[in-house]
Amino acid sequence: MRRSTAAAVGTLTGAALIVGVRLSVSAPVVPSAAPPAVDLSGSGQKADPSASATKKPAGKKTTSPPASEEESAGEAGGSGLKNGIFKGDAAKNPYGTIQVSIKIEGGKIVAADATYPVTDDSATINPPAIKSLNEETVKAQSAEVDAVSGATFTSGSYAKSLQAAIDQATQ
Prior knowledge:
The protein contains four helices and four strands, in the order ααββββαα. The chain is α+β, with helices and mostly antiparallel strands.
């Protein structure tokens, strides 16, 4: 009789503790919409990452020097990156699609931004992961960025889209 009483009391105590813990944990706040895109152009207007200030039309080659030293710095600066804003190809993963845009000035990546899903778990995982990856991109100056723990798919898609943007900047 004592064993059955002790087992019942232990079971009830354990259940009470579990319920108490469940009630004290609140659900994470989920943003209702995607964060606004960063204006990489610095113009204060809505950014169009697919447009580039220094892209030349295909098929037209000019022999005249660039209009300013700043425009030529990216091409002759040794990095091989052209100045402007470049958008990488969208990279899909099981949780959504990531697309990276980069801004290059003086042959260096000065800013990076990405579009990403913000539904379900992605709403809590992606914003801090993308922020970290954007900062790492500017620091690394390449697509060789460290993956963010807990955001493996996001990190892989980010690196793939970032490499596509860098490839566009080197053409």
